[in-house]
Design goal:
The complex is a heterodimer of chains A (about 375) and B (about 350). Chain A has about 375 residues and is an alpha/beta fold. Chain A is built from 10 helices and 16 strands. Chain A folds into 2 domains: about 110 residues, RNA polymerase II/Efflux pump adaptor protein, barrel-sandwich hybrid domain (OB fold (Dihydrolipoamide Acetyltransferase, E2P), Beta Barrel); about 260 residues, Rossmann fold. In chain A, strands 9-10-12-11-13-14-15-16 form an 8-stranded mixed β-sheet, with helices on both faces. Chain B has 2 domains: about 190 residues, Thiamin diphosphate (ThDP)-binding fold, Pyr/PP domains (Rossmann fold); about 140 residues, Rossmann fold (3-Layer(aba) Sandwich). Chain B is globular, with a radius of gyration of 20 Å. Classes of the chains: A alpha/beta (about 375), B alpha/beta (about 350). Chain B: Its EC number is 1.2.4.1.
């Protein structure tokens, strides 16, 4: 980069985000950075996350001061080569901000397309967020026990340049039907099959987290023809062990403070769990039927305090490409689950990460997944 | 999920609970507004401010009961119905009218569980409008929650937004004790995202609507919005506030207030009820007794003067707490360093 000026704008971490707070700058003006270096901390209503430099360069100007809340897309800083004059930087900032204020209406029209909507899948009404287009097969994201589409807030849009990426709330979760029938992995995998049918998608790449990983493996067993590849994040079904104290506490917590303590078990860096994240989980949990759904699923999937489904044979016999991520500090499903997997599985053990790799190490998970999916296209 | 007004949120809570449980009935003056008229229209108003509109049509006259203008009779009837198996929601219209039926609440409903050896349940809700700022003069503008909070055996709920109102009202209807549910009449058109499904918010857990390091603001009902506005303005000036909405004054979440004061060391309480023996006094006493050591400045109360609510618009405005008054109080406690002399 010689004369290029790179605008740094407020990122959009997922569906609900319309504005974010620039919590702090991690880089001073004049400092050189590499691509991927964290430039600032961005605080949203769900989570605090690092803002990574899109490219190498020098941070020339911090347009927004720390502590300021800005709409998504607003200019927060400028990256450029030292050769670019200060006057050019100032001119760029003025021009960018002027263009942005005229373009605001068009932006608003776009975001409507990415709003979640209800899709009838068999007997379930599922809350689905469908973004991106491309020639590649679509990617389906299956969240874990007690989660919802917001678990993919750092994943879905990041992987949606060049392909369709679909996230949805499982039955009993988020804004989907609260009924879950027997709550078994087979039943949940059937609901996923019905969703693919409803969306007229014959084949997908599947990414599953935790229980969603177990559902993904079950889907592969029941419908091998529908699954093009598997990306598993700390999946269920590979070990007996599961932290039942967490499962029970997470279902039954009826005060924000109790829920905060449970959510902290999901991550290695406890400061990731903010008040607003706790509040949004509690809002979902307070809906009539939400707790009962989780109780039913827990009873079906974790009978006698351990995992009831053994999906190792499915993984061992998998004829599709598989990648596996597991946080070394996972307190919910121990990282031992990643031991003794077939050598064909592309394995990533992440140090200093808990049970939510897609949020705790979003950039790494996204980068590896992008490569993994591109190799599939090439092959 | 869609944007709903405070009025719609309450209507939806009533409708969903009446669908779920046939024992839930409504009673009150004009809850099926217009029935007494000669126009032939059955549900012309749905209460004086339209909150119960449409419920008569859906649930019929057996479950939506228009009562005579006799608070003592229908509040008493609601208490009796609750004691014998129904789950009545009685609307008192303006909370000021409690004067006409206080015995039914104070000496009857609130005491049943205690007088009958814990065997009686009184699952009744009394809904009522409270608050000044509506130009409704002294007999229709009071904020009487301290009166109910003073009576053991009652639960007292004061929602601060549409989301809060729906979840807290459903919780109130499912609760087995008498609940006083107070709706600020100025807030009926306030809007926010409210889930379409039923949900409950537990009593006795305060909600933090802002988090900061310098000052704790406790605010009740409509005052929460004003406190948030003040906190947002103060943040731009470098002062960050925690805003606590207690949600219910009985039961009362003391722990959250004490914990936040331990962190910030400063307390401002915003209460629109008359200043003597109100919640601001109660909360100040709690903190003085149990968190005195944490205080860096005297506690400040943002409350109206001890006088009936004025009818005159300029005087009523002067009477009310406001975001500006809260902002000034926070700046005041930031200036004071009471304990530096020690």
């Amino acid at each position: 980069m010689t004369n290029t000026i790179v605008p740094l704008t407020m990122p959009k971490f997922g569906l609900a985000m319309t504005e974010g707070k620039l919590a702090s700058w991690l880089v001073e003006p004049g400092q050189s950075v590499k691509q991927g270096d964290e430039l600032a901390d961005i605080e949203t209503s769900k989570i605090t996350s690092g803002y990574e430099s899109p490219t190498a360069g020098v941070l020339r100007k911090q347009v927004a001061p720390a502590g300021e809340t800005l709409p998504v897309g607003a200019l927060i800083g400028v990256l450029a080569d030292p050769a670019v004059s200060d006057a050019d930087i100032e001119a760029f900032v003025t021009r960018f901000q002027a263009e942005q204020s005229t373009g605001e209406e068009a932006e608003g029209a776009n975001s409507a397309d990415t709003e979640p909507h209800q899709v009838q899948a068999g007997e379930y009404s599922l809350n689905v967020r469908d973004v991106g287009t491309g020639d590649d097969l679509p990617l389906l994201l299956i969240h874990g026990f007690g989660g919802d589409i917001s678990n993919w807030l750092l994943t879905q849009d990041a992987l949606a340049s060049g392909r369709r990426v679909i996230a949805f709330d499982l039955p009993g979760h988020g804004a989907s039907t609260k009924a879950v029938k027997d709550g078994s992995l087979v039943g949940l995998a059937r609901a996923v099959g019905d969703l693919l049918e409803a969306l007229s998608i014959p084949k997908v790449h599947v990414m599953g987290h935790s229980l969603g990983g177990g559902i993904a493996l079950t889907l592969l067993r029941e419908h091998p023809d529908k699954v093009a590849s598997l990306s598993l994040l700390a999946p269920a079904g590979l070990e007996k062990a599961v932290n039942m104290a967490f499962i029970t506490g997470f279902i039954e917590a009826d005060r924000n403070r109790a829920m905060q303590q449970e959510l902290e078990k999901l991550v290695h860096d406890k400061s990731l769990i903010g008040r607003k994240m706790v509040d949004s989980v509690m809002r979902a949990r307070r809906l009539d039927g939400a707790r009962d759904a989780l109780r039913t699923i827990a009873a079906a999937c974790f009978p006698n305090g351990e995992q009831g489904d053994d999906l190792r044979p499915v993984l061992d016999a998998a004829k599709v490409p598989v990648q596996l991520f597991w946080g070394e500090a996972d307190e919910v499903l121990p990282v031992a689950g990643a031991d003794n997997v077939p050598s064909s599985v592309k394995k990533h053990i992440l140090p200093g990460v808990g049970h939510l790799p897609q949020l705790e190490k979003a950039s790494e998970v996204n980068k590896e997944t992008e490569e993994f999916l591109k190799e599939r296209v090439a092959a | 999920m869609s944007k709903k007004s405070f009025r719609q949120a309450i209507n939806e809570a009533l409708r969903q609970e009446m669908r779920r449980d046939p024992r839930v009935i409504l009673m009150g003056e004009d809850v099926a507004g217009g029935r007494g008229g000669t126009s032939g229209v059955k549900d012309a108003w749905g209460g004086v401010l339209g909150v119960t509109k449409g419920l008569l049509t859906e649930f019929g006259e057996d479950r939506v009961l228009d009562t005579p203008i006799s608070e003592a009779s229908y509040i008493g009837a609601a208490a009796g119905a609750a004691a014998t198996g129904l789950r009545p929601v009685a609307e008192l219209m303006f909370v000021d009218f409690i004067g006409s039926c206080l015995d039914q609440v104070l000496n009857q409903a609130a005491k049943f569980r205690y007088m009958f050896g814990g065997k009686a349940r009184t699952p009744m809700v009394i809904r009522a409008m409270y608050g000044a700022g509506f130009n409704a003069a002294a007999q229709h503008s009071q904020s009487l929650y301290p009166l109910f909070t003073h009576i053991p055996g009652l639960k007292v709920v004061i929602p601060s937004s549409p989301y809060e109102a729906k979840g807290l009202l459903i919780e109130a209807i499912r609760d087995d004790d008498p609940v006083i549910f107070l709706e600020n009449k100025v807030m009926y058109d306030d809007e926010e995202d409210v889930p379409d499904e039923s949900y409950t918010i537990p009593f006795g857990e305060a909600n933090l609507t802002r988090e900061g390091e310098d000052v704790t603001i406790v605010a009740i009902g409509r005052m929460v919005g004003m406190a948030n506005e003040a906190a947002d303005r103060l943040e731009k000036q470098g002062i960050t506030c925690t805003v606590i909405d207690p949600r219910t004054t009985s039961p009362f979440d003391e722990d959250t207030i004490l914990e936040c004061v331990e962190e910030t060391g400063r307390l401002v309480v915003v209460d629109e009820s008359s200043p003597r023996c109100n919640m601001a006094c109660d909360i100040s006493a709690l903190v003085a007794e149990r968190a005195f050591g944490a205080l860096k400045a005297p506690i400040m109360r943002v409350v109206p003067p001890h006088t009936p609510v004025p009818f005159s618009t300029p005087l009523e405005k002067l009477y009310m707490p406001s975001a500006e008054k809260i902002e000034a109080a926070v700046k005041n406690v930031m200036k004071q360093h009471a304990r530096e002399v020690a």
